[in-house]
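Exercise 3.2. Students should predict the tertiary structure of the chain below and write it as structure tokens, then compare their answer with the key that follows.

Predict this chain's 3D structure.
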Amino acid sequence: MTVPGPGTASALPYKLIATDLDGTLLRHDETISGRTRAALAAATAAGAAHIVVTGRAVPWTRHILDSLDYHGLAVCGQGAQVYHAGEHRLLTSVTLDRQLAGLALSKIEAEVGPLLLAASRDGLEGEVLVAPGYRIQEGPLPNVMIQDPGELWAAPLNKLYLQHPALGDDALAQAARQVAGDLVGVTVSGEGIVELLPLGLTKATGLSLAARRLGMKAADTLAFGDMPNDISMFAWSAHGVAMANAHDELKAVADEITASNEEDGIAKVLERLYPS
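Answer key:
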């Protein structure tokens, strides 16, 4: 990650490039293409800064940042965590009020019936706990299966994950907002991933904090994303680019739609804006 130096920033179309990870920067196999790496390298060589803004908490993000040789700031956990990758430390961390989350959960279940649950614990080593029935996605991300759902509440949390046996993600999120939106934030961050967050917390919250540390503003920022949890980031940034594979809700508010994450969508935009 490179912060713009004197004399370079004013000539850049955007001084800060904010990218989501899953479905955006990463391909399906969790790799980043050579073309996209080269496009990001050219943009940072020109003086722009690249910052990762992801729904993943730090323990699920660190290996990606290390593979990028990324040493700057990253916004993790839907904005809850600002992480310094070079120093491997948390700069800020916001936790979910477990009493409010429990109340919200009871109200949601009263509306739609029993839910399947998982939870992300706070901290650099925070585990993702998975209660019986919750459907986990195949892949390399670690999780801990538990038998007693009461364990979910035993330590500070970043977020709570919800699934319903019959309702789809959008329908579940809408129902949760209707009955508990005054207690917690609700977002959809991927297929089968509906999350309860601290009220008012969004990716834009964390991105604005990280940008301020870099001496940058919303007007300096180009953002890439693919899911409804990126809507706040697009609203905050000067220019929002949705991937071709993006959720329709995000496409509806995007300034531009690029190719998919499998087809170097980020690279195609950066090559236009930061020609080498």
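Discussion points: The two ends are 18 Å apart (CA to CA). Residues 98-112 form the longest helix (15 residues).
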